[in-house]
Amino acid sequence: MPHGRAGAPGQGVHAHELALLTEELDHAHGSAGFVRLSGEPWVGKTRLALRLARAAAHRGWAVACGRAARDGTRRPFHALVDALDDQLAAADPAVLERLGPARLRVLAQVFPALGGSVPHGPPEADFHAVARALRAVLEELAGRRGLLLVLDDAHRAGWEVAEFAEHLLRHPPDAPVLTVLVHRGSGPGAGRLASLAHPDGAVRHIPLRPLAREAAAALLPEGLAPLHRELVLRDAEGVPGLLRALSDGEPPDAAGVPHSSLELACGPSPLAPSAPALDLGALSPLARLAADAAAAAGDPFTVEMVAHTAPLPLGLALRAVDELHSEGILVPDPRAGWSRFRRPAARALVHQAAGAAQRRAARERALAAPDAGEDTGGAVLALLETAGPPTAAQAALLESYARTTVFTQPARAERAARRAAERPGASPGPHLLRCQALVLCGRPAQALTEYARLWPRQEAAPPPATTERTDRTDTAVWTEAAVWRARALRLLGARPQARRVLRAVSAGDRAAVPAAQAELAALLLESGRPAQGAALGAARRAVRCAPQSDVAAYSHALALLAAAHAAQGAREAALEAAGEAGPLLSGLGAEEAAPVVEAWRWLGEAVADGDARRARQFFRHGFDLALHHGQGHLLGPFALGLARACLHSGEPAAAARHARFAAAEFDRLTAYDSAATARDLLEFIGRGPERNPENDFGIPLSTREREIAMLIGPGLTNKQIAARMNISIKTVETHLGRIFKKLGVRSRAEVVFRLSIPAAGFPPPDEECGPAARRPATVRSPAPGGHPPGSG
């Protein structure tokens, strides 16, 4: 559904709030009503008010909509003039006659339609006289049919509008009038409106909040690439205006590499230049200039930085920043005296809307501003936009930045490491760091090309010695590089090559770098049933090597141990290890967990066999964390796990959506065999519920029993089923015994007959190569614990 029609009635956007507003219309027939509709910028307040106006007009109500002046000038009663002047101009002469000459003289000082002009100072008449006359106008225009008065941007209106609202509460119109004040949820103006109260509760407050994920997804246009869709949903955070702006542009990267959430907050915008600018028409020119300067400075920033970047005198900068706070665009930062954009995506869109030359000039001024030196990343971000090889000091700064942000901003860390490597005579450090960032952001094939070029340098390297810059031994550097080279090979399905890379690392070096043991365990887990025993041993070594003081590494090793136990069919041991790892991982902050995001995958695999709901929670949390940090290499595996968990939970539509995403992500990674796995799962889902024995016959088969039963029809042997599902033959035999008992049968043929399983459902795989034998790409990548046919 195209999002351009998001405001149309009946589409479910803010449907609950619209129902509350129409309920107030019904109540206003008996007595005048009063509503405050509040929310942050671009959340859809104006659109919702217009939908209410259409609903009121459809019911035969008179409708008057106005808003406060947007040019920053002081115009008393402007919002009321905007709403009612046309109504008075078209009013029946009898209406004006009933108002009387005294009221018309008062109103003529405010309304051009009555022969006056809007003054730029206080009206000559007494405020109370104007308020009484305005109340009489509302009563006349309402008549018996009713009047809806909507005042938008009420937080920006002058004191007299808030006072008139108070007057209406104390002296309600003697007519069916519903007054709706639309305003920001924070700021001085909003505070005045929030103080409106009445002892009888006559003021109804309806806060408009960002949309839930499902409602936000319904607004996105058809045809968005799966990754672009997920990034839009993440960055917009449910704000409809941001959804429209982010989804209208092209994907932020031609290769579809995800950007980290942190990349939106500062530095060059990762968004596509074609993304439309946000609607900032409500801002004064001064505030718009300050918004551009704040976006160039990046989050967080001080008023002094805005003043230098704009450039503006400090007094004007203070006034402009105050306006941005009152508009809800900026919020205070935890550090006293600092501010930041409420939504990082808004900052990125504002920054992107400026021209390239303007952005460059603003960035240079921002770096020279007071307090800019406290942002150590500022100089790095400036270096990323310059040309020419960096100096030795600049290269060291770039490499340090890349190493610090490689897990939280891998795409930007790759750029920083590439710039550091441009220095003539650069050591392998920045080159290897760049390869790690390439793997993390989801470009393993490119990383392997770089590794192949760099690896001969390892053989010619001198004996281990401590490097001055990083205080890490050369051996540790190359061992870590071997881990990430093996990770790239594993992602692409080249497991034998990955295993050779890790085997080339000595046992002592693997013990010194806990990630090496963890990577070996993950590799063996993905290598299928013959390697599961070795995977369990590697996971145990990973637990022993990981220091318990390093909670992230230790919990990662425990999650691998849980998955290895589950692959062996040791459910109790798997749940015990998962029960220890889960709380440790949950206790980590997003930044602390960034190096071990994959641990959530192994937790999901550990419990998938018996608790699909819990597995889904683990996979979802890991997916969100990987997306937040821009770790594109994990999105496909997490999506595939989500697809399987949703299928086992009886949600085929969600399972198909996740499987499609997984297939697209594996294609992007050029992991074509894993993409085939996801497509096989899609094919299985597409066969429909008639192939599901539990749905068709109400037989209480477990998830695993149901999967094994579906594989009996094609005539697969126990050994072939075990290879297909990545479990042991003994586990297959145990499940078959339970299936026979539950169905009351004594043979495999009776199972096929009892469940009406088609005998040609799936072609039997090759005994040795498994289902990948019919594809020339690479070795398949079944997930531990098995999953539905066609998914590994």
What does this protein look like?
With 792 residues, the chain is mainly α. It has a five-stranded parallel beta sheet with strand order 2-3-4-1-5, sandwiched between helices. Strands 6-8-7 form a three-stranded antiparallel beta sheet. Helix 22 (495-503) runs antiparallel to helix 24 (514-526) and helix 26 (551-567) packs parallel to helix 29 (599-607). The chain is flat and about 100 Å long. It starts with 14 loop residues before the first helix and ends in a 37-residue tail after the last helix. Residues 1-11, 118-123, 463-472, 690-698 and 758-792 have low confidence and may be disordered.
Task: Provide key terms for this protein.
five-stranded parallel beta sheet, 5% strand, 38 helices, three-stranded antiparallel beta sheet, flat, disordered N terminus, 792 residues, mainly alpha, disordered C terminus
Per the principal axes of the C-alpha atoms, what is the gross shape? flat
Total strands: 8
SS field, number of helical segments: 38
Whole-Å distance between the termini? 33 Å
Percentage of helical residues?
55-70%
Indicate the mean pLDDT. Answer: 83
CA-atom Rg in angstroms: 32 Å
Low-confidence stretches: 1-11, 118-123, 463-472, 690-698, 758-792
Give me the side-by-side strand order of the main sheet. Answer: 2-3-4-1-5
Q: How large is the share of residues in beta strands? A: 5-15%
Largest sheet: 5 strands, parallel
SS-based class: mainly alpha
